[in-house]
Design a protein that fits this description.
The chain is of the alpha+beta class and 201 residues long. It has two domains: 123 residues, 2-Layer Sandwich (Ribosomal Protein S5, domain 2); 65 residues, Alpha-Beta Plaits, CATH 3.30.70.240. It is built from five helices and eleven strands. It has a five-stranded antiparallel sheet, sandwiched between helices. Strands 9-10-8-11 form a four-stranded antiparallel sheet, with helices on one face. Strands 1-7 form a two-stranded antiparallel ribbon. Strand 2 and strand 3 form a beta hairpin.
Length: 201
């Protein structure tokens, strides 16, 4: 199961006179990540590089910021992937100390910087949820409310019209069992909306 971070964490390493200041933090999208990186560059105008990696679904990124290609952003991204993180931004600010590290040395330095920060990170499991909509006759409203409460589904909306329309969410893994149980117990009187998977077979 993927995790994200509860709060930003930092590390500060000195490797052959170069200083590597890392931060790993929760992040939802690329635009916000780019703003964080821009702010870091403004805070560290004397830094040689501000490299970063983002894992956020289809908005992931790995940026070397002037370091040799593949020696910074990609290794940082690999650390995030290895720890099964999602929705996380890793940044490393490097102050060059005058000693070149070589490609292998750079990969190790950026990898170690991010890994060191993550040692103290508090991780939060990402539980994917699914939103379902259904309608029942008025006579079944109380029953359905009890079933949803028992399944720990979150009630999002209830509308009263010709029937009672419910919108609710629950963990994705729990949805199939609840759908099957409601279809069986409801005797075909639960009408599902906007979710073809929910229709009785």
């Amino acid at each position: 199961m993927s995790s994200t971070l509860a709060a930003p964490v930092h590390s500060d390493l000195l490797i052959k006179k170069s200083r590597f200041i890392a931060c790993v933090q929760p992040m939802t999208d690329r635009a916000t990540a780019q703003q964080v990186v821009a702010d870091l560059k403004a805070q560290h105008p004397a830094a040689a590089h501000v490299c970063w990696a983002l894992l956020a679904g289809g908005q992931s990124a790995a940026v070397d910021d002037g370091e040799p290609s593949g020696t910074a952003g990609r290794p940082m991204l690999d650390v995030l992937r290895h720890q099964d993180l999602e929705g996380v931004l890793a940044t490393v600010v490097r102050y060059f100390g005058g000693v070149k590290l070589g490609a292998g040395g750079l990969v190790r330095a950026y990898t170690d910087s991010v890994a060191q920060a993550l040692l103290t990170a508090s991780k939060v499991a990402i539980i994917k949820t699914r939103t379902l909509q259904c309608a029942v006759p008025y006579a079944l409203e109380g029953w359905l409310r009890r079933e949803l409460a028992g399944a720990q589904a979150q009630l999002l909306e209830v509308r009263h019209g010709d029937a009672v329309d419910f919108a609710f969410s629950l963990p994705d893994t729990a949805a199939p069992a609840l759908i099957a149980a409601l279809n069986e117990a409801g005797g075909g009187r639960v009408a599902w909306r906007d979710d073809t998977d929910a229709a009785p077979c």
